[in-house]
Amino acid sequence: MTISTVNVNGLRAAAKKEPGFSDWLAASSADVVCLQEVRAEASQLPSEVVDPDGWHVVLAPAEAKGRAGVAVYSRVEPDAVRVGFGEAEFEGAGRYLEADFGRVSVASLYLPSGEVGTERQDEKERFMKAFLPYLVRRRAEVEAQGRDLVVCGDWNIAHREADLKNWRGNVKNSGFLPEERAWMDRVFGEAGYVDVVRGLFPDQEGPYSWWSYRGRAFDNDTGWRIDLVCATPGIANRAVEAHVERAASHAERWSDHAPVTVVFGV
Q1: Which residues form the Endonuclease/exonuclease/phosphatase domain (predicted)?
Q2: pLDDT tens digits, one per residue of 73-87
Q3: Domain positions in the chain
Q4: Is the pLDDT at 266 greater than 90, yes or no?
């Protein structure tokens, strides 16, 4: 099973670029693709994006127009789909979508970005506080059924110093705050999930998946690794390959994020 995840930074814009999202999807070898920051409803998207040949598409747009939104594209129709994770504040926020495929559930997560000292950071902290118990509970549920869960997406937190180029300059910024990193410790400790890409590349800087459009961040590879594939141990232990699908040049980027793809063996 091959799973890709990418924050598209606005699906309408990403689809209009050449090369763009549709070109990437047509060439993808993934079985399941998770999208974040879709920022559109189905009626606002062209048919080749919302109903592409060979794909089943489930969208979970945000009630707030032009914000957030997640999606799951899959080669086969999901057995079941769930939007949200049971927290009323975030049910219509376009932040979480989970789909079942046989013995594996795959979720697309767009954890809120924050900014220190603002309501955005408060929202991020409320989300984190509510989401961790869900991860604990959901892991217990799927494993009791002999199944696994893969939570892909833009987690908006760099867990370790190796996960961002300029970590010294970001210790007081949202995305690398000590309390956010401690929360990720709990995701991998208390909740027992595995950071699949880090598991395959334990000693590597990065590989980064997001670069600011400002300056020469992309050209200099001054990036962040915030697009994560986190999985319950059963399937995480079957990961055999992972890579970031980094554009060949700045001009060929169709998002400020790059797709992260993981291949799981039988």
Answers
A1: 5-257
A2: 999 999 999 999 999
A3: 2-264
A4: no
